Description:
By secondary structure, the chain is mainly beta. It contains four helices and 28 strands.
Amino acid sequence: MYLRTKQETYFKKRLASADQLPEAEKVLVPEGQTLDIQYYVDLGDHWQVVLTAPTLDNQGTLSWLVYEPHVEVPTSVQLTVVSDTLFKQSPTLSSQLSDAQKVFVKTGTQYDLLSYLPAAGNHFKITLAGANLGPENRNTWHVYQPDVKISGTRQELRVISDTLFKHQPQISAELGAEDKIFVKKGSVFWLNSYGSVERNHLKMALEGTGLGDQRRNTWYAYVPDVEIHGNEPNNRPQDQSPVKQVATPKDPGKAMRFPGFSAIYYTNHPILWKTPSGGPGNFTWGEATHNGTRIPENPQVVYGIVRMAQALEEIRQIYGDRPITINSWYRPRAINAAVGGASRSRHLQGDAVDFNVSGLHPHDVYKRLDSWWGNRGGLASATSFTHLDSRGYRARWAYGF
C-alpha cells in the first residue's frame, strides 16, 4: 500500500494545526510525493499513517498524522459514471436533499475507490480514493447503481475496536510481547488472504505490511474486533435457480443419502420439520441440493445447510412470511468454479445461500439485514440476489453487477 500527496502538506506528530506545532513536530511534504505505508487509521478529517520505513525525519518516526483531503491511497478499484448523475449524502431522492448534500457528476467521470457497499434504493455507498467533493470536502457518498460501472476489487480488514493482533489464537496473557501488537480502532489494512476461525480468532495475511520486530504479515485477530470489506477477485456467481417442487404426501421427491447419516432424505421434504412458529420449514432439501444433483460431500456440509435454513426462516419472519426464492445454495467445488464462485466460497461448506425476497430489491434486503446478521457471517448483494453466509465473523461486500 502506498500514499501519494495531492498537494503540499504537513505530516504531523500530533493532532493539531500545523501552525501551532514546533518545527520538530512537523514535516512539509511536497505535492506528488509517494510514501510506502503499512496501514492507515481513519480519524475523520485526518489519517494516521504508519510508514514502512522512517523516511520523513532523522528520529526514526514511522507514525504521522496528515489531513485526509491532501492525500490519496491509489487502488485498483475504479468507478466510471455511465450516465449523468448525482453523488448524494444519503440514498434518497435528490429532490429531498439540499444543494450541500448532493454533487452533480457528468458522464465519463472516473474515480478510484477505497471501498463500495450496497445501499438502499439500488444505490452504492462509495468512498473515493483521492477525491473530496462538495462544500465539506467529503469522500463518502451514495450513487444510484445504474448510473455507474465499477471494475476491479480489493479486500481489506477494518479494525472496529482497539485490539491486539496475535501470532497465535490465544489469550493475550499467554503470549510474549513479541507475539502480539496493539492495533487502534479505525485501522485499515489491505489483505492478501484470510481464512479459518480458530478459537474465535480470524487468521489473515496482510498485504505489504510487516508488523512487530519480526515484520510478520500473518496474524490472528479477535473476531468481534474486526470486519472484512470487499469482494474476492473473480467472484461473479451466475448459478441457475433450482426449480422448486411442491411437496405432497404422494410425492416426497428424489431420495438421497448423505455421508455420515443413516436416514433417507427427500428433495420435497422441508429441511426443518419444525420451526419456532410450530409448523414445518419453508425450505426443502431440493432447494439446498439443486433438486438432488449436488449431494453433500461430508456431514459438515449438511450441518451448514441446516444453519442456513434456520437463518432463512428468521428472515421470512422479519418480512412477515413474504416468499423467498433460492438462487444458489450448496455448490460442490467443480460446480462452484463453473458458475464463477469465489475460490473460498462458503457455498462449498453449505452454509451460504443466494436468495431473493419477493418484491424487494436486493440492496434494500442488504440494508435491512445488515445489523441483524452482525458478525455471524457474510452479507452481500448484487442487483439480482442477496448473499448470506454463517462464516462466524463480519464480512460485507457488493458484487458490482
